[in-house]
Specification:
The protein is an alpha+beta fold. It has three helices and eight strands; from the N terminus they run H-H-E-E-E-E-H-E-E-E-E. The longest helix has about 35 residues. The chain is flat. It starts with a helix and ends with a strand.
Length: about 160
């Protein structure tokens, strides 16, 4: 009876270790995909724009994929660079001061839509127009996206998806 318990416990421990290893492998792969392309995007932006220093990079998946870099230009002004995944397309650099802030984009959405819970606010690009993407749960419990024009604060698109 004692041997059966030891064998059972050993099998269970091996199974748990294998499951834990598989989980970490999947997690690592997912995180690598999320950050895949960031270094290449920074290199392109440094080479093809006035970007001097990259502080952060986020991936935006809209109609096309962009890597959005926050940093400083050669005059030490805060800038954003939208680097398209397609290397045939040119990166777009904008001074942060030439557009609305993340806070202002959120204020616009709150005034127009009254979100229940904000999920995220990040920069993106659609049809060559820099924008802020605000994701939230609306007052009808729908997962909602608002795309706010970076330059003028106009809501370009409002998409609500029933949960």
């Amino acid at each position: 009876m004692g041997k059966k318990i030891i064998i059972g416990a050993t099998v269970l421990a091996v199974f748990l270790l294998a499951a834990l290893g598989a989980f970490f492998n999947v997690y690592h792969s997912a995180m690598a995909q999320k950050n895949d392309g960031h270094e290449a995007a920074i290199e392109r932006a440094l080479k093809e724009t006035d970007l001097k220093n990259a502080e952060s990079v986020e991936t935006f998946n809209g109609l096309k994929q962009y890597y959005v870099i926050t940093g400083l230009n050669k005059s030490n002004e805060a800038v954003y660079v939208w680097v398209p995944e397609d290397s045939k397309e040119k990166p777009v650099l904008k001074l942060a001061a030439d557009g609305i802030t993340e806070k202002k984009a959120l204020e616009i959405v709150k005034a127009e839509q009254n979100p229940e819970k904000v999920i995220s606010v990040k920069l993106g690009m659609e049809k060559n127009i820099p924008l802020w993407e605000v994701k939230y749960i609306d007052d009808r419990n729908r997962y909602t996206y608002d795309l706010i024009n970076f330059s003028n604060g106009e809501i370009r698109k409002h998409i609500a998806i029933k949960k």
